[in-house]
Amino acid sequence: MRVDLFDFDLPSERIALRPASPRDAARMMVVAGSQIDDRGVRDLPALLRKGDCLVFNDTRVIPAQLEGRRGEAKVGVTLHKRLGPRDWQVFVRNAKRVRPGDLIDFAAGVQARAGERDTDGGMTLAFLGEEPVELLLERAGQMPLPPYIASKRPTDARDQDDYQTMFAREAGAVAAPTAALHFTPSLMDALAGAGIAHETLTLHVGAGTFLPVKADDTSDHRMHAEWGRIDAATADRLNAVRAHGGRLIAVGTTSLRLLESATDEQGTIRPFADETRIFITPGYRFRAVDGLMTNFHLPRSTLFMLVSALMGMETMQAAYAHAIAQGYRFYSYGDASLLLPAR
Questions:
Q1: At what angle do helices 302-311 and 313-325 cross, to 10 degrees?
Q2: I need a labelling partner for 122 at 20 to 30 A (CA). Which of 97, 171, 235, 312 fits?
Q3: What are the helix and strand counts (H, E) for the chain?
């Protein structure tokens, strides 16, 4: 499909630079079939059914943004995917100034050696020394805010908490599963009181989620790989929800993509521990999920393609036009949408 079919005009003032406070005070646009309703995140218990299950991503964002130098040249590094105890696949700003074998000096005495360039447009980086890389990142790294926020303000201490969900447990993501940022303990109590269950899985979100689609046609776009896991017990419980008539509502596109990656043609969710490059565009047949709670996405992005696949292109173009007209806040720190297809 032509990528320009997924374009729309978004005024820059619609981009949220801070989250709602408290988190569950955010607005939420509900799209059920083709009907659009303006609600709030706190309305979620009344919008779902007893027996439904929300599925969260429990990945934890690491301080994956690093600023350093190769000689006199400034170099910016964003970790993308772990390759080993000390080795990472990374994206590099000013990459032309870095050659394989070069030493890069970061803050607090942290050093890394540049490796070979890769087919995904980045390169490998090996951190020096014997300290665990996690400790090095705590010293030298920053929270990797999305470019559309980082270009408008610097990262600060508030982001250490704001850009981490209440479910964050498994360290390894370089971007937050932002739909879950809206949840609070009180909202989870209200959902449990309404008979709505929840489960967690793990998908370590990579920096590729921020990359624009440069191809003119979706068939020419290559997704970056991300590692995910669903254990056998969780898969069994998720299958039981659907067997008893409940719906699986993915919280975030990361949860949805992992669920769909782990589900067979008969609709059974299998244990999964592997990389996924799943790319969902209109025409895709959903096997695992019955709905999605997600934030508002960029024009021409793979995530807007995904929600268009779930709800229909015309429906989502109309929904986003409504969201813009009604002043919804977009992207990682923005408002939410609850998408419930008619089927």
A1: 110
A2: 171
A3: 9, 17
H or E stretch at 134: helix 133-140
d(CA 217, CA 326): 31
Tokens representing 262?
């782990």
Give the predicted TM-score (pTM) of the model: 0.93
Do 181 and 292 lie in a common domain?
A: yes
Is the residue at 146 inside a domain? no
Pairing assessment for the beta strands 73-82 and 272-276 based on DSSP bridges: unpaired
Say which residues have a Cβ less than 8 Å from residue 35's Cβ, sequence separation at least 6.
none
Host domain of residue 180: 3-61+162-340
**CATH, residue 268:** 3.40.1780.10
Model confidence pLDDT, tens digit, residues 187-234:
999 999 999 999 999 999 987 766 778 899 999 988 888 999 999 999
Residues 250 and 190 in one domain: yes
For β-strands 291-295 and 248-251, DSSP reports them as: parallel
